[in-house]
Description:
- By secondary structure, the chain is α+β, with helices and mostly antiparallel strands.
- It has helices at residues 2-36, 96-212, 216-266, 271-288, 304-315, 319-322, 350-362, 364-376, and strands spanning 39-47, 62-69, 74-81, 84-91, 94-95, 292-301, 325-329, 336-348.
- Helix 4 packs antiparallel against helix 7 and helix 4 (271-288) crosses helix 8.
- It is extended.
- The chain starts with a helix and ends with a helix.
Amino acid sequence: MIKAVGxxxxxxxxxxxxxxxxxxxxxxxxxxxxxFVPVRYRIMIQNERxxxxxxxxxxxxxxxxxxxxxxxxxxxxLNYGPKGFTNEIRxxxxxxxxxLAGFNKRREKKQNRxxxxxxxxxxxxxxxxxxxxxxQTIDSxxxxxxxxTINTAELEENERSVSLNENxxxxxxxxxxxxxxxxxxxxxxxxxxxxxTEILESKIIDFEKNKTSKDPKKRRKKKNILSELYSxxxxxxxxxxxxxxxxxxxxxxIREKIHMLYGEITSPGNRNAVSHLWKELCYLxxxxxxxxxxxxxxxxxxxxxxxxxxxxxxxxxxxxxxxxYHITADFESDKLYVEGELELQGKVTGYVMVMIFIRLIRDKxxxxxxxxxxxxx
Length: 377
């Protein structure tokens, strides 16, 4: 029995050991891939001259950047052109955006199903209650409908008799009004003249009173409007002042940092650290610079003298003669343009950054400068 238990524990430990070993090997493999497998990049820039205007310095520019790692296991494609900026990210041949969109849709569907499942019993209860209420209302309305049909016939007969009596009374009233109109018109004209004179006198009196004494409510309203406008203008001015002071403080902090860095770089005690940092930066540029560069360009500055000067400045760089560059200057064109293609290819490896970081940490002078800068900031 003891031997069986021991063998079982030994097998369990053996399986756990193999699992841990495989995980450790996978981690080391991933670390080695990240450090030594390069990230390859390719940049292409194209520009075409517009045939209608001819002046197309940056109008029709198109740029494309491709980044890949581990035999295109991870692939990033970036494009920029007249239509705008587009990007695409793929992992193991799958579009990452589409995969994430599919997961989000599945989550939304599950959430909607759960909501529908929760709402179904409530809706069943509501339908039952509404059906019972409708049946009760129908039963209660049936006798009322019978009584309404009887009452409508009686009401129609009464309305007919009332309408006849009204017509007779209206004819009598019109005859009496025709007699009284002549007498009442003369009296009304005299009364209207008196009323107009009284209204004019009252308006004159009110106008004179308003000159001497104004309504205090109107004054208060005007004061409130003016105070609100003044307070709003004050708030805006305070906000502008605060924004300006914030920008000034940020600029002053940036200036202080620049002066501090300039002082640390130019101080004689930090020469060794600055020279070491400069060497590491040059080494980084040499390792990460494009390995392949090709260009086919044609340009004109709308002036033969300027185009010749720029061409002479370009010819001063010896790198132009070593690489497959084809640059032509157009001395006859009277319009400013640059057209052609430019292609850059290179790679970036992680171990270069790690080695530079380790060398800088091991340097005591660099670490002292770094600590001094972080302490001051």
